[in-house]
């Protein structure tokens, strides 16, 4: 049996994922976690074959948790579950060490295949997303402005372009308003821009957000 742990802060989402997994006799959800810190604690104490991790988590967000997992338990494949379908976001997550990237919308039809593939040592992304990533990789060769950003800076850029305020971003990432303001200032400097409107326009034009 392939032992799984699900990390998502919404119990109803965890239940839904367990229902999908229950359709296969090869997998068992042996534990679950509601926060990144809880997941890390359980992974340190127990053995799991695959980790299902929500990208948006309270406290430590999914990207930070993923990076810590890759330091402490680099051999355990991690499938990221998210509401973000954007290719650029997926590309950064895969580069950070994820073995799979699934939108929650596609989980019902693709989760079982994803678990099987990453458990065998492969990588899993949907065909649709793979095509978008291929275009993103082509764009990478030209080294676009957003590629100069760190993962955290890119995350803040994405949230600004999505219409969130500095205060909302700080709350969501569990950081201070001052820290987010500093990230924003760095982003504007690196991208040679002056306003949130310019950042948002850039994000739309380069398909960082839909």
Notes on the protein architecture:
The chain has 210 residues and is an alpha/beta fold. It folds into two domains: 136 residues, Rossmann fold; 61 residues, Arc Repressor Mutant, subunit A, CATH 1.10.10.10. It has ten helices and six strands; from the N terminus they run βαβαβαβαβαβααααα. It has a six-stranded parallel β-sheet with strand order 2-1-3-4-5-6, with helices on both faces. α7 packs across α10 and α8 packs across α9. 31% of the residues are buried. The mean pLDDT is 89.
Defining key terms:
alpha/beta; Rossmann fold; Arc Repressor Mutant, subunit A; 6-stranded parallel beta sheet; 10 helices; 53% helix
Task: Please report the number of helical segments.
Answer: 10
Q: In order across it, which strands form the biggest sheet? A: 2-1-3-4-5-6
Query: What is the CA-based Rg, rounded?
Result: 17 Å
CATH class of the largest domain: Alpha Beta
